Amino acid sequence: MLDARPVNLLELHPDFATDPYPAYAALRERGPVHRVTTDGQESFWLVVGHEAARAAYTHPRLSRDWRRYGALATGLPTPTTLENPGNAHMLLADPPDHTRLRRLVSREFTPRRVAALAPGIQILTDRLVDAMLKAPERRGDLVDAVAFPLRLTVICELLGVPDIDREAFRRWSDEVIAPTSGDSARAAHREAVAHLTDLIAAKRTDPGPDLLSALIHTVDDDGDRLSEDELLSTAFLLLIAGHESTVNFLCNGISALFSHPEQLAALRSGPDTLLEGAIEEMLRYDSPVETSTPRIAVEDADICGSVVPAGGVVLIAAADAGRDPARYDRPECFDIRRGGRGHLSFGHGAHFCLGAPLARLEGRIVLRTLLTRLPGLAPDGPPADRLSSLVSRGIRRLPVRW
């Protein structure tokens, strides 16, 4: 059994919120699993290292089903919004329920549907870059100028969400990923669910060619279909969770390129050969998902020789898995020629991110367009307002000039 005394991550590394990697590396030297805390009150079990992370992602005794096993959880409280509708999605389910939900969604969220989005993503990216080029001072924030509006528009068009209020959406997303309080999280969840409930009702009577309309009507070979709450929950998951991680991926990756000018110069000179590798290295080097969403040990769970007690809440450090020297040579070095597939930034196993192909597609189009049309793109100061959340690792502002 592991030492029950929690390690305070902030004491281990005072700048943990902005740079968690030294703390993760220090823990990894001690072993694969640790009981940790950030505030001295709530605690959880953290899995570090690539091998242990892969094992934890597929461990049969670690459950994502908080509705069924939340009463067992110790150290971290049950999520505040769990009692609301909108939580019957695959991210909060284990097999066989997860298998069923993923099968139904995958019938419509196909590679062909994702590939068909490419021309529209290119047009939208060009429009956003056109607006940047018209700015008289030739400087701005890349999050607001490209990353946020692009991802919001793409996911809304995919789902068929018309004219969503951007500020409301940003508030919902922020509260879901990094809640400021239980009341604020519940309010944001209620507002988002109410918006999607009305949208689903409208699409039942007037369906379109979008993914949400398809999910309303999809039926598998056995006659199974998504229930009303499962449909609502899936729309919520795709709209909110997928948005945040892709914005983080784009901005973290571009920031890494800025911090390694020789890599940026190489990519500019050879995008046709280096772009795919650059996308994977951006994901490995500074993962947009810092740790997995919490799992509950429904029984004592042995992870690479370390046993998490039943009821322990487990977070898997995907970001640290990408920096493990046992998996990558010189992992602290950003190298777009590495060929970094095999990282865990999209998860692993049954819960591997369903939106990974869309995120990669957006990354390729955005990065190539910025390199081609803004050859002078450069940082205009350091990244600002790091997202303070163990689950999500992102940048709120990325000042640039061009």
TrEMBL record:
Pfam families associated with the record: p450
Alphabetic keyword roster: Heme, Iron, Metal-binding, Monooxygenase, Oxidoreductase
Keyword match Metal-binding: yes
PROSITE patterns: CYTOCHROME_P450 (PS00086)
Superkingdom of the source species: Bacteria
Name by which UniProt lists this protein: Cytochrome P450
Family membership noted in the UniProt record: Belongs to the cytochrome P450 family.
